[in-house]
Amino acid sequence: MFKTADMLNIFQKYRGDAIVVPGRGGRHWINISQKPKLDVPLGDPAMGGHCAFAFGLAMALPHRKVVLFDSEGDLQMSLGVLMSVAEQKPANFYHFMLDNECYATTGGQPVPNAKNVQYDLIAKGSGYPRAFAFDELDAFAKALPDILEQKGPVFVAMKVVPEVENEAIGQRKRWMTRTRTQAINDLRQELRIA
Ligand SMILES: Cc1ncc(C[n+]2csc(CCOP(=O)(O)OP(=O)(O)O)c2C)c(N)n1
Questions:
Q1: Is 158 helix (H, G, I), strand (E, B) or coil?
Q2: Residue 16 CB contacts under 8 Å (≥ 6 apart), including other chains
Q3: pLDDT value at position 170?
Q4: Rounded to the nearest whole angstrom, what is the distance from the C-alpha of residue 17 to the centroid of ligand 1?
Q5: Could you give the CA distance from residue 51 to residue 71 in angstroms, rounded to a whole number?
Q6: Nearest residue CA, atom 25 of ligand 1?
Q7: Which residues pair with 132 in a beta bridge?
Q8: Alpha carbon distance 122, 128 (integer Å)
Q9: Burial 165-176 (b: 16+ CB within 10 A, else e)
Q10: Do the beta carbons of residue 21 and residue 42 sit within 8 Å?
Q11: Model-wide pTM > 0.70
């Protein structure tokens, strides 16, 4: 297992001009990203939506890499999206998934069979042509540049340390500095899409 922030710091070096949907890693990414106008943080939306959103962006912007940091609870809520991605095969879609084996945002409740699920195999079985799994940061760092050069869709499962939140949701410090609408407008402006 490794820390999400450590992994994102490594990813940042290879990001290029990819659009990043930081998912539930957003609160770390906001301090690391050098190109916030190409980031689309969605905050804490309904689970199951991150992948469909990033997949849609990738389909709409085929000449731009789209990198998603999904999470295992989120993906489980809408597992069928893997098959839709695999069918459409967006060559510019890089689907990373943070697996902390629990629902950290809501207090750390355990995800069923968390130690044994192999999400890379689920992605492969759904039809992703390439899928990887990492639980050591060194191995991830070595493989990352090559992964980002491969044709998508690529799936990358990563074991990350749970950072459990126990504060009542209404009392948490908000990490998002922009609304979702602002983030999307900033992206449109950056890409010169009217
Ligand atoms: C449909 C739906 N049910 C419940 C929630 C409340 N909720 C917000 S985050 C979360 C846990 C998400 O788990 P995971 O995707 O594994 O990310 P983590 O919190 O572990 O980083 C839950 C249950 C929600 N946002 N959407």
A1: strand
A2: 65, 148
A3: 87
A4: 29
A5: 9
A6: 46
A7: 156
A8: 9
A9: eeeeeeeeeeee
A10: yes
A11: yes
Count of the separate structural domains present in the chain: 1
Token output for 56:
């849609």
Between the two ends of the chain, the Cα-to-Cα distance in Å is 42
**CA nearest to 68, candidates 35, 96, 40, 92:** 96
Output the CA 189–ligand 1 centroid distance in Å. 30
Residue tagged 């074991």 (tokens): 159
- Assess whether the C-beta atom of 26 lies below 6 angstroms from ligand 1: no
Range of the domain at 81: 4-190
pLDDT by 10s per residue, the chain, length 194:
999 999 999 999 999 999 999 999 999 999 999 999 999 999 889 999 999 999 999 999 999 999 999 999 999 999 999 999 999 999 999 999 999 999 999 999 999 999 999 999 999 999 999 999 999 999 999 999 999 999 999 999 999 999 999 999 889 988 999 999 999 999 999 999 97
71 lines ligand 1 (CB under 6 A): yes
Tokens read off for 172? 């948490």
Query: What CATH number does the domain containing 57 carry?
Result: 3.40.50.970
